[in-house]
Recover the amino acids of this structure.
């Protein structure tokens, strides 16, 4: 158990819908990272937040947005969902948000299925 | 740009050794290694920073050749619990890459009794 929690564990929805994925980082960690893992694209970095501020952006679609709240939990919002958005979405956290210089602890993931 | 891992898959018997390589075309600042079992989250193994360091953890070790932009993960005397997909995640050198890990496509390791 990494100490990072994600809800929900599974999500099934229809194309065109909007969903919100939630992540609580490990106690004391200030930074949250979001990743998407699909069979064809592998594990891809989406976005990083540090203490409420966006710090780095990766291959995140405009239909996707995220935020980190004062209590440090983070939400990833996915809208106008398409079949290709079906994937495992992982959240990871680290202490200082120094990107690749720190261990990132991964949550159990949210499996999204768009029908 | 995604780092390239080789081999794509390895099948071992318990007690055998394996090496997994991770190569990048870009100058790297750090390389992370993770193991992921099916349906589970990636689990951190180790980080190597530029400077050509080598690290070890139990019977798993890794090296980072900064000049070649290549890292290798060494698994010795493999155990059944080593089975899974191994990913390298790389951080490019340079300010705009801050916070971004780019992962390789993964190497599937299967250990049989």
């Amino acid at each position: 158990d990494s100490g990072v929690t994600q809800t929900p564990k599974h999500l099934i929805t229809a194309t065109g819908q909007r969903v919100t994925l939630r992540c609580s980082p490990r106690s004391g960690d200030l930074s949250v990272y979001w990743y998407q893992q699909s069979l064809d694209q592998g594990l891809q970095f989406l976005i990083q937040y540090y203490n409420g501020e966006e710090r780095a952006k990766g291959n995140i679609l405009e239909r996707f947005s995220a935020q980190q709240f004062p209590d440090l939990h983070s939400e990833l919002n996915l809208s106008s969902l398409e079949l290709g958005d079906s994937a495992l979405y992982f959240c990871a956290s680290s202490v200082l948000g120094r990107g690749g210089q720190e261990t990132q602890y991964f949550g159990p993931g949210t499996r999204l299925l768009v029908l | 740009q995604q780092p390239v891992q080789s081999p794509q898959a390895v099948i071992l018997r318990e007690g055998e050794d394996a090496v997994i390589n991770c190569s990048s075309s870009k100058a790297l600042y750090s390389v992370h290694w993770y193991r992921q079992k099916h349906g589970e989250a990636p689990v951190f193994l180790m980080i190597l920073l530029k400077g050509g360091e080598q690290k070890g953890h139990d019977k798993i070790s890794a090296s980072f050749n900064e000049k070649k932009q290549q890292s290798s993960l060494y698994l010795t005397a493999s155990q059944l619990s080593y089975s899974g997909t191994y990913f390298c995640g790389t951080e490019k050198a340079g300010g705009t890459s801050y916070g971004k890990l780019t992962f390789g496509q993964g190497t599937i390791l299967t250990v049989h009794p």
